[in-house]
Amino acid sequence: MGNGPVMLDVAGKTLTAEDEARLRHPLVGGVILFSRNFESPSQLTELTAAIHALRSPSLLIAVDHEGGRVQRFRDGFTRIPPMRELGKLWDEHPKRAKHLAQQVGYVLASELRACGVDFSFTPVLDVDYGASSVIGDRAFHNEPQAIAELAHSLLIGLKQGGMPTVGKHFPGHGFVCADSHLEIPVDERSYTDIELCDLIPFRQMVNFGLTAVMPAHVIYPRVDALPAGFSRKWLKDILRGELGFEGCIFSDDLSMEGATVAGGIVQRAEAALNAGCDMVLVCNRPDLADELLAGLKYDMPVTSKARLAQMHGRPHSGTLVQLHEDAEFVRALHEIASIGMSEGELPLV
Description:
Layout: E1 6-8, H1 17-23, E2 28-33, H2 41-53, E3 60-63, E4 65-67, E5 70-71, H3 83-92, H4 94-114, E6 119-120, H5 144-160, E7 166-170, H6 191-195, H7 199-208, E8 212-215, H8 232-242, E9 248-253, H9 265-275, E10 279-282, H10 286-295, H11 302-309, H12 320-323, H13 327-336
Parallel strand pairs: 1-2, 1-10, 2-3, 3-6, 7-8, 8-9, 9-10
Antiparallel strand pairs: 4-5
Helix pairs in contact: 3-4, 4-5, 4-13, 5-7
């Protein structure tokens, strides 16, 4: 049985019979984990092993694990700083900032892979205009070129750690104040304004080998009346056509307020998939998940199956404890600890 186009969450730290029944549904292709699913690295490893054992090919396992305030797993994991700290360092020492971004990516990916997680929804490629509290210090910088170069270094580190990359939130969530979790944000700028700034990191990261993209639940009415994640114009004409992106497209969570413009949950999923998404997410609403699985009729294209197959993490040998004893990894940890320190505070090597 192949995997389907829907990514769901699970209730707790172990799989319930209800979880297992949902995850065996042919429309399901992945699982996203949250803080409630985590107690310790060993528990997480058991949970991911149980999820992977349910199906062949195995379900994808993802998490929002960017660093800063968006880091789902903490106890036993390295504290990843918000990406803004790398942006601050970029202003003084660009070369060092890029090196540390690569080390951050390597540590982040290696720890997650050691516990059986396939990928994190990272990096954030949004430009920080100082307006969006939901983006804020999750963004690397307010300069598109700085974002592109730091994200490229992070991509190299993630790849080194065995993990694909997901750039978000296409074509840019940083200009609008509204939080798409709670509202329907509208960005009134012209396509030219967006292209000359917000699209620069996405365009460059596509050229650098970005594996996947997550579009924003934001409406850009001067381009299309639909939010980007439901827009053929944004996903097929611009992202795939103009930017030449051939990787995977994940919807943002369809249970968010910003997605409600597309109708009920089945209509939202149909709209996202027909617009060009390869996989849709439904989080924190098991009632909507059941409604979607019961109502969605969708014949998944071969191209989508091939793109999703690229999202499995590279096989990882050894446990998190063994990883933390690896000399290369320990050096990376030591360097990451210096992020946010002034030169006078840097630890001795």
